[in-house]
């Protein structure tokens, strides 16, 4: 196979949780532009359908479906619907995440439990169900979207001159840190079925934060900037495609060198 052809996602069916957010939109674009039959799923079906309609107009094959990660029945129904419509699932991108009202450490356990249900328990459930479909074809790629916050602690110097971080919550760091080793776990148990599991850990994303934060954070990267709305597209296509056929169990920082300093 020609090396450029190995990056194609033609004839592959890909499921992306989320699809209209900061990361989701560019990941949806990447999968569709590489030729995948792309399914985006979340609770906000109206917003997803706007993205799907726009990308279909540009020639992409994008379908928006309903998914509530807090409800196990909804996860089962989504995977069953994908198999009913397309008969296979080749790529799963675990991207959707809930940001519960966890702005502090001093919170009731039930508040953290709400976040863990979606960002941990639902991750386990969807990955397992998707893998069962992939096993029937003895191939598949699962991509977990983590965060640089899952591989290092918060740096107070990034927030000097802002009011962005007062007392940080441990939950996001805990969940994204757990995704690092969940990726290794899933790669280990699914490798014999030809299913690869990898994670990417994006760095700070430019979203019109206070000027002081942008300056502080950018200075902590090797490339001198935050991530933009296309920086994840190439690595997602690489991991989803046959170009990465011998790559599994990896955790790849996509952070401009932030975690390497």
Q: Give the CATH architecture.
A: 3-Layer(aba) Sandwich
H/E element sequence: EHEHEHEHEHEHHE
CATH topology: Rossmann fold
What's the CATH class label? Answer: Alpha Beta
Number of domains: 1
Q: Ranges with pLDDT <50 over ≥5 residues?
A: none
Radius of gyration: 18 Å
Large-scale geometry:
globular
What's the rounded overall pLDDT mean?
94
Q: State the share of residues found in helices, binned by percent.
A: 25-40%
Total strand segments? 7
How many separate helices?
A: 7
Write up what this structure looks like.
The protein has 261 residues and is α/β, with parallel strands linked by helices. It has a single domain, classed as NAD(P)-binding Rossmann-like Domain (Rossmann fold, 3-Layer(aba) Sandwich), CATH 3.40.50. The protein contains seven helices and seven strands, in the order βαβαβαβαβαβααβ. It has helices at residues 22-33, 45-57, 72-86, 109-135, 171-190, 211-219, 233-240, and strands at 13-17, 37-42, 61-66, 91-94, 140-145, 195-202, 251-254. The chain has a seven-stranded parallel sheet, sandwiched between helices. α1 links the parallel β1 (13-17) and β2 (37-42). α3 runs parallel beside α4 (109-135) and α4 (109-135) packs parallel to α5. It is globular and about 50 Å long. The mean pLDDT is 94.
């Amino acid at each position: 196979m020609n090396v450029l052809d190995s990056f194609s996602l033609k004839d592959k069916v890909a499921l992306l949780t989320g699809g209209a957010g900061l990361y989701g939109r560019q990941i949806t674009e990447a999968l569709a532009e590489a030729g995948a039959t792309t399914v985006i799923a979340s609770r906000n079906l109206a917003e997803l359908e706007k993205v799907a309609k726009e990308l279909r107009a540009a020639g992409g094959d994008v379908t928006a479906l309903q998914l509530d990660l807090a409800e196990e029945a909804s996860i089962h129904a989504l995977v069953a619907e994908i198999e009913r419509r397309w008969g296979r699932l080749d790529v799963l991108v675990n991207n959707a995440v809930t940001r519960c009202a966890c702005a502090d450490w001093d919170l009731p356990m039930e508040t953290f439990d709400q976040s863990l249900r979606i960002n941990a328990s639902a991750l386990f459930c969807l990955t397992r169900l998707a893998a069962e479909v992939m096993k029937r074809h003895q191939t598949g790629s699962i991509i977990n979207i983590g965060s640089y916050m899952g591989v290092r602690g918060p740096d107070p110097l990034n927030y000097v001159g802002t009011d962005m971080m007062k007392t940080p919550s441990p939950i996001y760091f805990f969940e994204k840190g757990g995704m690092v080793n969940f990726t290794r776990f899933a790669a280990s148990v699914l490798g014999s079925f030809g299913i690869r599991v990898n994670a990417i850990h994006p760095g700070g994303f430019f979203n019109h934060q206070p000027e002081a934060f942008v300056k502080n954070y950018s200075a902590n990267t090797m490339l001198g900037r935050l991530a933009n709305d296309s920086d994840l597209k190439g690595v997602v296509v690489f991991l989803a495609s046959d170009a990465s056929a011998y790559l599994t169990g990896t955790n790849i920082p996509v952070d401009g060198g932030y975690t390497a300093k």
